[in-house]
Amino acid sequence: MYRNIARRVNRKGNMLVIIRQIVIYYDVIFFLILSRALYLSIPSTSENNGENTISVDRLVPNFLTNKKLFDLLDSRMEVYQRSADRSRLVTLAKTKVVVEKSASPKLADLESLTISDLKQLLDQRGIMYNSRSTKHDLIGAVIISGPVTIEALAHMKQIGDPKIGAVHEFNDFNIEETVEKHNESIFLINIWPQRLQSSYFNKLSWKALKRKLSYMDFKFGELDCDLKKRICMKRKWNISTLYLYTPGKENTTEYYITDDYSVHSIFSSIQNEINYRVKHISSWETFTSSKWAFYYGSKDKIAIRIILFTNMTLPPMFLSSLSVKYRDTVNFGMVNIASHKGRRILRQLKQKYWPLLLVVTKRGIFTYGKLQGEHFTYQELDFYLSNLLQDFQPIKQWYHKLPCFLDPTLIGLIIVWFKATHVFSRVGIIYEERNRGHQHDGDDVDNNDTMETVTHEAEQLRIINQKYN
């Protein structure tokens, strides 16, 4: 009996040792993964505060339940039958897109402006013009880009021309490294060829191009092939070349400067290269899709949609540059109101003034460009978007800013791990002591049995001896 008990204790002890090894010695990765999962799950609870919840009228009608769809139509005082087909009710919901109301501003008299003022207006909006353009041509270009308010004109004269930032000097090794550090800015690098080459991008043209692109927060650099012959030979830069780096694009673009170049053509080429994220909205059905006027739900990561209503066929440079900087958080669209479908969208929204910028958020659709301080420039819209995006960032606790090795969840789980190690170690010692005790008891039982056998055999021998004697 004692031997069976000892065997059972030994089996339990071995099983406990195996379990202890699995839990203690092979759980480090498990605890690390669990701690990170808990740590990342905490911010999601703070995202659903009162300000960041999505209103019903911002959800795409196709995905609303019948009750929410009825509530939406009731809130808009729509007349409908509940027994009607769901597709008709969804179409009715999409025909009513509520836009913030605002009064039309006072416009400036373009005829009273000087040629320098007209050029500065076009530079701020990122619109190219010929250096020899007449005043009549410049006024026509401004009209196409949109009317100018009196307040916007005063603001333009107040801020003046932008300052051109420092020009980075590049060598064989730091081109890719430097442009990747400025991941939000477009980089334009002027490659000066060896002086023996005939084609050459003169400094006056380079200065004029930098001035125009500085309005759009471009970064600039220069590389002199007379001093850096190795990299120029490697990349075959034997004539004047402009190296354009656009964040978000896998490939860079190189413009080779020929003898018949013009700043106007270079500017237009750069504009066509960076406007890849501005999408043309050509119909009301596209506008009311979940990509622009509505949201799928809380899983929709794009917090803001920017839609420019303009008479231009191509997006202005300020819009293209902003679309590159905010490529991960904002969708940029454009409606050409010179077309019949574009004017229909504007009429559906009951808007008359243009250029008009619609700012579609999770809270509603707002207009930009009619109130004081709302100007169609890169700097003003950049400031506006940066502040607007802060309202949609999840509120993070102080410990979310700590490094990985200082996360409270990770520290707590490490403490639990050490505590579990200590407990299992103590339990293992106790079981080992018990096993040893059981082994000693078994040995004592065996010894007693042996002594009884020897005593019995001795008694038998004594009895036999007495009989024969």
TrEMBL record:
Signal peptide coordinates: none
TM region(s), chain numbering: 21-42
GO molecular function annotation: ubiquitin-protein transferase activity
GO CC terms: endoplasmic reticulum
GO biological process, one term: ERAD pathway
This protein's UniProt keywords: Membrane, Transmembrane, Transmembrane helix
Keyword Plastid: no
PANTHER family: E3 UBIQUITIN-PROTEIN LIGASE RNF103
Protein name (record): Uncharacterized protein
